[in-house]
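thread: overnight batch results

M.L. [08:02]
morning all. the overnight job finished for the chain we discussed friday. pasting input first so we're all looking at the same thing
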Amino acid sequence: MAPSSRSTRLLLPTTAMATARFLLLALCAAPSPAHAARSLTTPAAAATNTTNATSPAAAEYLAPHNQARAAVGVPPLRWSADLSSAAAKVVAQQQRQGRCAFADMAGSSYGANQGWASYRARPGEVVASWVAQGKYYTHANNTCVAGKQCGTYTQVVWRRTQELGCAQASCATGATLTVCLYNPHGNVQGQSPY
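M.L. [08:03]
and the structure it wrote out:
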């Protein structure tokens, strides 16, 4: 099964908590509740539109993305204040709806990876779960192992993607919803990520 522009889901038990659950979603295509959504931008980042990670939280997203990209020989991503702001709006909307569920990103012009954890997940942990799907991807024939998903991984390492912006929401239940947006989007049907 080749990676596609449709959603990809994977339910994994985490090592941090035996009863915790982690759910991943990769999509491509295209404010203030009780628990605030966090956009990882700084005034300097907002002024320049795209920047290297200027905050430790932004670096927590960017570093594992760029490590995975370096491992397959693709250029590093830059942090985008605009994408981070857009991701914050998405998680805030999902949070306001009271579900903290995955957003429907089908109409977005950005690529998107989403992660949901039943506990307060760290950004690097969420990205690591997306990258871990790489073990199911076979570059030689651009497919995922039968019965497995690898779309979050292929979005992380998509060669043409240049910018990244992410945000998280802490849900009333203690869960965490994470959204990362990618520009340009990846996971184009029939194309190899690198």
